[in-house]
Write a structure and sequence with these properties.
Elements (H helix, E strand, L loop, with lengths): L11 E4 L5 H7 L6 E4 L9 H10 L4 E4 L13 H14 L4 E4 L2 E4 L2 E7 L5 H18 L3 E4 L14 H12 L2 E5 H11 L3 H6 L6 E6 L2 E3 L4 E3 L7 H14 L4 E3 L8 H22 L1
Parallel strand pairs: 1-2, 1-12, 2-3, 3-4, 4-7, 7-8, 8-9, 9-12
Antiparallel strand pairs: 5-6, 10-11
Helix pairs in contact: 4-5, 8-9
């Protein structure tokens, strides 16, 4: 298998989805890189893993996790980490990312990315679990900011402050989901540009873009639509501040034809190229 290094990940990529395997492997479209949801490939065999390895032979790749439950009080699932470690060894991703969230309680999994209170106690708890996971996997994780619909009483710091402290304490990086940042900002009355300005810029290794649904008095993060204009505007601000960070089009529900995802990735690529020209 071809070995790609982190330097191979640049430009605008696409989330890998099963309905696109045949087209990707049959025509090898010009896509800069793919990101796979790691939890779909944790078995030791089978067709999904075979397809993933075949795609990996031709494209740089990252892995994105949803099952680590870093914010839970349940012990970290060591069997899960071992399976993920084997997948990392097979696929050799440029990096691995996870969510700032919890999904399990008492050994039961809820299949939702649930929010954390931004307190000192939570910070110490999550930082310890990130360090434990990184030690088990032998690499630093990228931690993704959530989309949220509530805040907790008694919070002691902002989300950017919480992420900054996680980076400082654990050496992890950040996956900045610009859509999530916009959704949370609109739901809570934050300034989305100020949110991005307050993040530790040098720790941000990847950006996600996706679509949301507008409801009567809140935005709902579905990752099931094209990127909305205000999110494109916030993305333009983000890469102006951060530079041309590798960017992924993420689409999780009502998945469209691959050409639609490539079109969205093309828009992101245009933003990145304009940013590079200005820097030059």
């Amino acid at each position: 298998m071809t070995r790609f290094t982190r330097k191979s990940i640049e430009g605008a990529g696409i989330g890998l989805r099963t309905c696109h395997y045949r087209e990707i492997l049959g025509s090898r479209p010009p896509v800069a890189w793919f990101e796979a949801v790691a939890d779909n490939y944790l078995g030791d065999g089978g067709m999904p893993l075979l397809h993933l390895e075949q795609v990996r032979e031709h494209y740089p790749m990252t892995l994105h996790g949803v099952g680590m439950s870093l914010g839970s009080t349940d012990p970290l699932d060591q069997a899960y980490l071992r399976r993920l470690g084997r997948l990392i060894g097979r696929i050799e991703p440029a990096w691995v990312s996870e969510h700032l969230a919890w999904i399990s309680v008492g050994g039961s999994y809820l299949h939702e990315l649930l929010p954390l209170p931004y307190t000192q106690e939570a910070l110490e708890h999550v930082a310890g679990r990130i360090s434990e996971a990184q030690d088990a996997l032998g690499l630093p994780l990228l931690i993704e900011n959530p989309s949220s619909y509530l805040v907790f009483r008694g919070e002691q710091m902002s989300e950017p402050e919480f992420l900054r402290e996680l980076v400082r304490r654990t050496g992890c990086g950040i996956l900045l989901d610009v859509n999530n940042a916009y959704v949370s900002a609109m739901n809570h009355g934050w300034d989305p540009s100020a949110y991005i300005n307050d993040l530790p810029a040098t720790a941000i290794r990847e950006i996600h873009l996706a679509g949301y649904e507008a409801h009567e008095n809140y935005l709902f993060d579905t990752h099931g639509h094209r990127v909305h204009p205000p999110v494109w505007d916030l993305y333009a601000h983000a890469i102006e501040v951060l530079g041309p960070v590798p960017t992924l089009i993420e689409w999780d529900t009502d998945i469209p034809p691959l050409e639609t995802l490539r079109d969205e990735a093309g828009k992101a690529q245009q933003h990145l190229e304009r940013r590079r020209r200005r820097a030059a």
